[in-house]
Amino acid sequence: MTDHPSLQPYVDAWTQSMEAISELVTSLVEGEWNGRTECPGWSVRDVVSHIIGVECELLGDPRPIHSLPRDIYHVRDEVSRHMEVQVDVRRHHTGPEMTSEFEYTLIRRARQLRNEKRSAEAEVNSVVPFGPRKLPLERQLMLRAFDVWVHEQDLRRALDKPGNLDSPGAQVARDVFLAGLPKVVAKDAGAPPNCAVVFDVSGPVEFMRTVRVDKDGRGSVDSSVSLGPAVTLAMDWETYSRLAAGRVRPEAVADRVKTDGDADLADAVLKHFAVTP
């Protein structure tokens, strides 16, 4: 356990998802490693490589010296280029090589987290999902728990092994997604001042939240009920998480999303729903 109780829930969520991923991939045959995931451009092997690479960087390991091919279509900026190096360098690794490196990285990183002495406010390096930068340790660990849960779900859908939609990592993911809603509604979707948009989510993680746009066009989110919202969007938790993580386009899950109110605003919100890069 870390020295700071506020960090432990994120460490526990990260650990649970990492162990679940280990269990998912340990028995894969070679062909399954090449299965396509909903994470744009990445296979099962690529997702696992990404997780290994990020954790190695947080352990302080040197980054690989590696030149990326020029034809990787999903590499569009410096953040995605930074992420892709750790993935591409492992693209020819075998299944046993992948699982052994994952297990070793998990052991090393778990030991590091158990022995963590820094305060929750300490500024530390972060890597994903929003690019390399300095963050408070608590925020870094929250984003790690979020990221590995999202990738666990990528792997589960690719391998047709659903589960853990209500795990500790799912609760962390909900909080990260909700924190991005005011920007989605007020700025990206251009909701007019003095309106409200309601999100009604059912399933393993159930909640109702209202994003309110004030007279100056600033958004905020709360759990109080809104009377006469401009838009209400209702969907199940898995659909919400796939949309918010940019894993699926709104038209692909139109049958799983119910909208009520201003149709144009609803479409704009769904178009800008993803809060991850």
From TrEMBL:
Name of the protein in its database record: TIGR03083 family protein
Gene3D superfamilies according to UniProt: dinb family like domain
GO molecular function annotations of the record: metal ion binding
Origin: domain of life: Bacteria
Chain ranges of the Mycothiol-dependent maleylpyruvate isomerase metal-binding domain: 15-156
NCBIfam families to which the protein is assigned, alphabetical: maleylpyruvate isomerase family mycothiol-dependent enzyme
Alphabetical list of InterPro entries matching this protein: DinB/YfiT-like, Maleyloyr_isom, MDMPI_metal-binding
Coiled coil feature spans: none
A Pfam short name: MDMPI_N
